[in-house]
């Protein structure tokens, strides 16, 4: 009697159609950057990337994204911990408002910032009377980037804080540790991988911010023109001329994401 033949199964136990759909999704993400790579004007690549305008835009993007990410960490971590540890109505409403930029069109966010910190804004008019103008300055770039990037860090850290629970914090409290010491020595080390992931997501989102920036900060070269804005300006006249700087942003993003992913894997392995 011939023994029954069994179809070879995937080691993970997934059906073949799942692999097919996953392949479509991977192609949807990978093919567009490869298209930039294939269509790049390599004969003028170095000249375009090292032009004064491109270098100024890239430098401004990196500096402002780093500053906005630091602000996200300083204000976002306490917010995330509070959202994770409290569940009242007020906290739920505030959490929904804080996460609003995740789904809000960036241009709308930029307009909201303009009517808040602009010369006629509810806050900006008082700052203007004091001789402080924020709109259409480099500070406006940082605020726009922080506005859109902050929710990414908050949601990453909040989820991790909820998962680790309060057991270790309660033990630290019984040993005499105060709230600040517990936060620094217990809570944050436990959620360090998620904090790092949220930090990278915030930096990447700030680096690629366009809509809120151009609405609230404008597009002044050397002052508010970040790399995405410089790419947009170049693409209007000559789409191919925008490819070199676009590839630079792709490479920076790829290096950051791969580096953090490797770090998280090594941390998980050590644990």
Automatic annotation (TrEMBL):
The keyword Membrane is assigned to this record: yes
Transmembrane segments: 12-38, 58-84, 96-115, 135-161, 182-204, 241-260
CDD domains (UniProt xref): TM_PBP2
Domain ABC transmembrane type-1: 58-260
Membrane as UniProt keyword: yes
UniProt subcellular location: Cell membrane; Membrane
UniProt keywords, alphabetically: Cell membrane, Membrane, Molybdenum, Sulfate transport, Transmembrane, Transmembrane helix, Transport
Short name of any one Pfam family annotated for the protein: BPD_transp_1
Main location: membrane
InterPro entries membership: MetI-like, MetI-like_sf, ModB_ABC, NifC_ABC_porter, Sulph_transpt2
Membrane topology label: Multi-pass membrane protein
Cross-referenced PANTHER family: SULFATE TRANSPORT SYSTEM PERMEASE PROTEIN (PTHR30406), SULFATE TRANSPORT SYSTEM PERMEASE PROTEIN CYST (PTHR30406:SF8)
Function: Part of the binding-protein-dependent transport system for molybdenum; probably responsible for the translocation of the substrate across the membrane. Part of the ABC transporter complex CysAWTP (TC 3.A.1.6.1) involved in sulfate/thiosulfate import. Probably responsible for the translocation of the substrate across the membrane.
Subunit field text: The complex is composed of two ATP-binding proteins (CysA), two transmembrane proteins (CysT and CysW) and a solute-binding protein (CysP).
NCBIfam families assigned: Mo_ABC_porter, modB_ABC
Family recorded in the similarity comment: Belongs to the binding-protein-dependent transport system permease family. CysTW subfamily.
Name of this protein: Molybdenum transport system permease
